[in-house]
Design brief:
Layout: H1 8-11, H2 13-34, H3 50-65, E1 72-87, E2 98-99, E3 106-120, H4 125-139, E4 146-150
Parallel strand pairs: 3-4
Antiparallel strand pairs: 1-3, 2-3
């Protein structure tokens, strides 16, 4: 049977103490390089990121739904099809308009493709209808674009 040997780098206790802080520092540097800030608009000030807009909408909808009678532990998935550019005075803030960083006062409003909801209480037809009606009215989308399932 072959005997396992410790690599020379790990054999020295002084070097072992430097490895963990070095790996942590490398991890922090990689995170800083690849993770951008929490802004919805992209860095160039143009159209926002669909993923960030979806996350923001999902959080707002989740909070809204957890306040509905009969709904517990709501989980939400929103898919954004594209963004429409509107002048700031025409944008509806309830639809999640995200300002651009340009001087023309353009607001980008997500066009929502669909919303999926799972929650405890989602098996009740009454709760389902409450959720569908609420989301349809708040988001300005047809009821056929909203699906509710028991969770």
């Amino acid at each position: 049977m072959k005997k396992l040997t410790v690599p020379p780098l790990l054999a020295d206790p002084a070097k072992r103490k430097l490895i963990l802080p070095g790996l942590l520092l490398l991890g922090v540097i990689l995170l800083l390089l690849f993770v951008k800030g929490g802004s919805v608009a992209n860095d160039s000030g143009g159209v926002p990121s669909a993923a960030k807009a979806e996350q923001a909408l999902e959080q707002r909808i989740r909070t809204l739904l957890n306040g509905v009678d009969g709904v517990k532990d709501a989980r939400v998935l929103v898919t954004v099809d594209r963004f429409e550019a509107l002048q700031a005075e025409n944008a509806d803030p309830l639809l999640g308009g995200f300002p651009s960083f340009s001087s023309d006062r353009t607001v980008y409003v997500p066009v929502i493709r669909g919303v999926g909801v799972t929650c405890k209480g989602g098996d009740s037809p009454v709760v389902r209808q409450r959720i569908v009606s609420l989301l349809s009215a708040c988001l300005g989308i047809g009821e056929n674009r909203i699906s509710v399932a028991p969770g």
